[in-house]
Structures are given as structure tokens and as C-alpha cells.
């Protein structure tokens, strides 16, 4: 039966209804509000599929630990179906595969492992350092982004994104050429971050190639996110970097840090480099 | 029908026979010689599954560009079956999924995209730098590795691995604690590197946690390899690094550089941290 409408935009964006007759199938709707560059944001799609798998994983392992998605065809706003298959139920992990499709066309293939992030070993021996950012009020909101970008980015209205002025020269035609974009991230309606919303966060900033003076869109081929801890509520620090633009492709590494200084997510994607 | 035995160990290790009656199925044998820490090396398994998908992708897209593997259960030497499914045949990429199983038990789930690496755009705008290594003859062969390691590592006999003395203090009970292991890699029988063998190279060094003073094995949960260029023949420089050991897991980032100074592969895995 249809479920009640969630209060927050992100929860509406990944809302699913279990299919009454087909075990493992969940149906939902990809909303207009998550469009970017003519398609639906890849992070939202990853969260949508992972949401279906999380339900199948069940309460013992409710959180994605690692989620790998391969983008098979471009998603469009409208109905979408996720068919899930649980591959293994272990003591510490539940692993599954999911196919997100629209009108019978496969959009995204996901394999993911789920755990209980609240029950992990408490050791934290992180040597990575969080990005150094000016305070959110010293950063640049997307209202300053180029009009042609905003026109194609309904997604940005769902986000409170404050980019570091040092990495947003591209918006003024002066890219730093460092291959780095960083800033503060929060959902616009203050929906608290959780393991699923981090999958969106990992793919929510503009393509890091903007900072290399390549303003075009960069279609994602593959995106893997490791969710390393449950995020604290509040602002998230997000950095995107690339070190290998070559052969028409580039990798984009993303880190997400919470207000407690915990590295809560790491991701890497391979994308097509804009000309 | 069975195919002739390849000349090189790696090609024997990933040898497959197409199943006569089941389209997309390929059968092979996981050899004793690829064992490590009681299981079969995860990189060899990834190459084994990717080999089957490469055959299905066909001559237009013969090389893996991105390969994501999720390790479902521990593989053992013996017969293994790969069942493949092609998800999309595009102009620049062919994408497929594969299940590697033994005796009906799923071992590894792979999703991968294939292309023609020889036909990529020639631009190389890499800002990453190759690891600085002493010459191979100044590095440390695995013959110096701890006996208890070698006893569980038939894999190492297939490899000519020369580790940087600066990152092998762990072998003498003095780990650098930098979370970094690097060295030179070549297949012991001089089999030239190619796109498939790079999948092995990305998971062939000892776990980077050895350098943190944790000598135990580190089971891989998920491993994604991006093959960014066809490697030149000769020595490969390989670096493994981790920056986030936390909650009982760690990420291991690997880079593989060829003798022409090209970054030919980048990989990241999530693994369980040894106690």
C-alpha cells in the first residue's frame, strides 16, 4: 500500500513502496527537484537504490557501509523501480545487489554491503585531515553560481551549499586549476544527515573539472561510496579533488567530514571529462 | 571445448572455457599458486571475472576501464564458474555484470565497463606524481619477508616484488606507522603487463596495515579498480596507502605507474582492519 509522504525533501526523494506481489521489489518516483545537467543526480540515484537494499537488509544491518554504483543509462524524472537481491547475510555484514530501472530500462546497477554503523569498533586512527574552510558565512552560496549552471540544476535548491571562495574562481571565469572544490554542505530543509544522505552528499558538488576550466557536465560511469561513520547533525565539510584527468576520463575523490571532525564518508568516481 | 594451456602463469590463472550450452558462462580453475592468507588473492579473482566479461564485451571494447568487485565469500583453489550478463553495449563503453561462484556458492559479484584503451583521447593532464623509489636492486625482495607470511602466500612466488626499504620496516618489527607500502612489481615469469594483469597488481602487495604494525590479514569487502591506460612493458611502480583506519575497517588506495611515468591504474578497496 502507498506510504505517507515524508516531511523532508530527501526522504520524499528516496521514498519507496514495497511491491505487493514481487518480493524484493520497491517502487518510487524520481522527482524533478533532483535534476542536474539534464539528468537525475547520481548521488540521489545511489541513495534511492541503497534505500531499497537497506529495507531488505533489515534492522540488524540498517546502514550502507560500501555502495558501488555503475550508471547504465541516463535517469529521467518519473516512476522508478528497484529490484533487490540479497547475496549474503553475515554476522557483521549483509550484502546485496540492486537494479534501478525506468520503464524496463536499466539505469543503475548497485552492489552494496550493509552493517550497523552504531555498533562498530570505536577505534578511530584517521591520519587524513579535514579541509580547511572559511566559516559558512564567509563562503559562497550557489545563488552566485553561473546562470547557465543554475538553469540545469534544480538539485541545488534542495541543498545549502557554501563553497570555499578559494575553489570557486571558475564561477568568475578564473578557475584555480588545482582540481579541487570544497565547501560546506547541508540539506536546505535542515534534514539531518544520515548514512543514506551521505550518498547524495558524495555527488552533490559541481564537477571538480569546473576548477580546471572545463565547465561542461561530467557523466559518472562508476561511483563507490564508503560510509565510515554515522554523521553528527549540522554542517558537513565536503572536498572534491582529481589528480588524473587523462584519456577523456577523470577520477573524482570526495571526502565528507562532520562537525565532530570525523571522516564520515569517502568516495571515488570515474567520470567522462568535459571537453 | 577445452582450450590450450597458456604459456604464462597469469594467463593460466585466469584461463576460461566458454560453456557449450549456457551463453555467457565461462568455467575455469582457481590455482593453488594464487593463494594468500588462506584464500585466493582478490586481485586474481577480479581479473578472472573481468576476463570472462572482456570476452563477452568483444573486440570493440576489449579492456576493462572500471571494475568493481564485492567479495561475497572466501574463494578456495578449485573449479570456478563465471556467469556474465551484458547490461549495455554503447559506442564508447560496454557494461556488464558477473557472478563468480564455486560449487553454487557466490564468491564475488562484479560490475565493470569495458572500452578500447588504445583508442582513448591522447590528452594526459595528470597532476599526481609517481612514488619515488630506489632502483629495484636497492629494494627488498619477498625472500626477506617473515616466514609466517611466506608460508601463507604462494601468490608471492608468481610475482617479482621489490619493496621500498623505507616502507618495509614492518618485516623487521619496526613499521613506519605511515600507512604506506610501495615498491616495484612485475610478474615473475616476465609476462607483460596488460589491462587485466593490472587488476591483480592493484591487490598484490601486503596489506598496507602491516606498515601500521598490524600484521594480520585484511579481508577485502569491496575493491574498485580504474584502468586508465595500457601499461608499457617492464617494471610497474605500485603504492598502497591508507588514511582512515576506523571502526574496524580501512580504505586502501593503490596507484600503479608504468616505466613511461603514466598512471595506468588507480584503485581503492575497503577492508577489515586486523586487530
TrEMBL record, chains A, B:
Domain named Acyl-CoA thioesterase-like N-terminal HotDog: residues: 32-115
UniProt cross-references to Pfam families, sorted A to Z: 4HBT_3, 4HBT_3C
Domain Acyl-CoA thioesterase-like C-terminal positions: 136-272
Residue numbers spanned by region Disordered: 1-34
InterPro entries assigned: ACOT8-like_C, Acyl-CoA_hotdog, HotDog_dom_sf, Sec_Metab_Biosynth-Assoc, TesB_ACOT8-like_N
Basic and acidic residues bias (residue ranges): 19-29
The organism's place on the tree of life at top rank: Bacteria
Stretch forming the signal peptide: none
Name this polypeptide is given: Thioesterase family protein
Species for this entry: Kitasatospora saccharophila
